[in-house]
Amino acid sequence: MPSRADTLALAAGLRAQFEAAGAISVETPILQSAETLLDLYGEDIRARAYVTSDALRGEQMLRPDFTVPVVQMHMAHGAEPARYTYSGEVFRRQEDDLDRANEYVQVGYEVFDRADPAVADAEVFALISEVLAGLKLRAATGDIGILMAAVRGLNTTERRKTALMRHIWRPRRFRALLDRFGGRTPVPPTRTALLAAGDPLAGLAPQIGQRDLVDVAARIEALREDVAAAPIAGHELSALETLLSVHEAAPFALQQLRDVAVDLPSISPALDRLDQRIAALDKRGVDVDNLDFEASFGRTSMEYYDGFVFGFYAERRPDLPPIATGGRYDALTRQLGNGEEIPAVGGVLRPGLMLELKGGL
User: pTM of the prediction?
Assistant: First the structure.
């Protein structure tokens, strides 16, 4: 394994390259507010973060990544446009695989710029691709925003669309909901019994727990509304499944997705953005004709991204995690910006893995 000194030296070199590209070097605290991260990701974050606390600051987490604190810093007092770079340790719990590091060094490059999101996407991807040149990595790209647009445009209730949006990053749960909302799987018998006509609170045992009776009644009414709603149309389900299966070189993927837009017209603006991004990548010298685009890419590990996503993988070392990942996170700036927002895109690299590949280990 590469030594810590070698890893930090490479991290410093990468950071210098990003500074030469116009980025300001920044530092973020290792301890992050657990409240902020829980608000963003829910209780799922506890499964992969180290949690601690003290009497004054409350519950905190060892930094699981840099993006959230960098966004907080920029939204509090950053100039526009802005480019940042950073390096340091991040911490991830590993309960299923002892061979995966629970502490490692990341180096990142982030762009906050309103001028042209497609050009900013291409800038980040091309710069990281150049840094990784020579490692013989496979680049994969996708766009979470296309799937989000498809869900928002479905002819179904807002509650159902909200549920699907919440589980976009959990493919199994998303599929189960889609099958149920489309009438492919029946409503569970326990739920149909609960939703029988009559007073849902009649004969209940004494109240236990934090939910009051008003909350319980509202939840039951929401379930009743869901059962009464018409199934999602078959042509919309089929189109959504076709969308999720698209895996082609970027220009050909765009053509296939244009066909899908006949049945899911809500995705057309997102496809226009993809078209603009492909053109911007081509202008930056990226071989777009051989650039993989996977419509489902990023759905299991990139929870705060809401547009362009990418990753670089060592196919000769399938045991290794991605060497670099990144994407667009406009919605995150809105969530952390106290009413303000700005288009933002960035990516991170793992210098330790880069050294491991360079050394042929």
Answer: 0.88
